[in-house]
Specification:
Length: 214
């Protein structure tokens, strides 16, 4: 009869230990799940970065192709060619309208590219796309930063965005010129915008600008 209290005490102690073990196991299990999820997210993020880098690399092919159009033998090497639209080279002589991120609206269409320029005209490039590796499709447009068609020598600085010459004070008007500026300003700016479409509806946009002697 005297040993009964001791037996009840040991049973209670064993029950408390078991309860603590179960709690610790639950905590370890939750921690293991969290670590697995964290590892999975890290691998997923690393894969996305690598995939994005691949799209950027393939998108740069379009920039190189567009630049060749302005070199010897290209469709846009002459100033007479850049004076008007050339859809077969994906070229617009008028600046294209863009969204808030600066992407021309013509590139925001899913398949058939078409969009407005700043003069209200509809520009539809027909130069086709570039087929990359791994199911990547690259599309691009080139637009001259002017508000109308025509030769740059005729439009002048009032109708185009251009690089100021060495005799002009950037940001100023004619009264702020250090010396009388030339009658024709420096070459206008051309913009190349690229959209690379990859698997699972992924997209990467690239943009570059340059000038060339007129």
């Amino acid at each position: 009869m005297k040993t009964l209290p001791k037996m009840h005490s040991r049973a209670r102690e064993r029950g408390v230990v078991l309860l603590f073990c179960l709690i610790i196991l639950v905590i370890l299990l939750a921690g293991g799940i969290a670590v697995m999820r964290s590892t999975g997210n890290s691998l997923f993020g690393a894969g996305n970065l690598a995939f994005k880098r691949d799209l950027v690399n393939q998108g740069e092919l379009a920039i190189a192709k567009a630049m060749k159009e302005f070199q010897t033998g290209g469709a846009l090497v002459n100033t007479t060619a850049t004076a008007s639209n050339l859809p077969t080279a994906n070229y617009s002589a008028i600046q294209l309208q863009t969204n808030e991120q600066g992407i021309p609206q013509v590139l925001l269409k899913k398949t058939t590219l078409s969009g407005p320029d700043v003069a209200g005209n509809t520009f539809t490039p027909s130069g086709g796309s570039i087929t990359g590796n791994g199911g990547v499709t690259v599309r691009y447009v080139i637009d001259r930063m002017c508000n109308t068609t025509g030769a740059f020598s005729t439009i002048g600085k009032n109708g185009c965005v251009y690089i100021p010459s060495s005799t002009e004070t950037p940001g100023g008007d004619q009264s702020q010129l250090s010396t009388p500026g030339p009658s024709v300003p420096s070459p206008p700016i051309y913009r190349i915008t690229v959209r690379a479409d990859g698997p699972r509806d992924t997209q990467v946009f690239l943009q570059a600008s340059f000038t060339k002697p007129e």
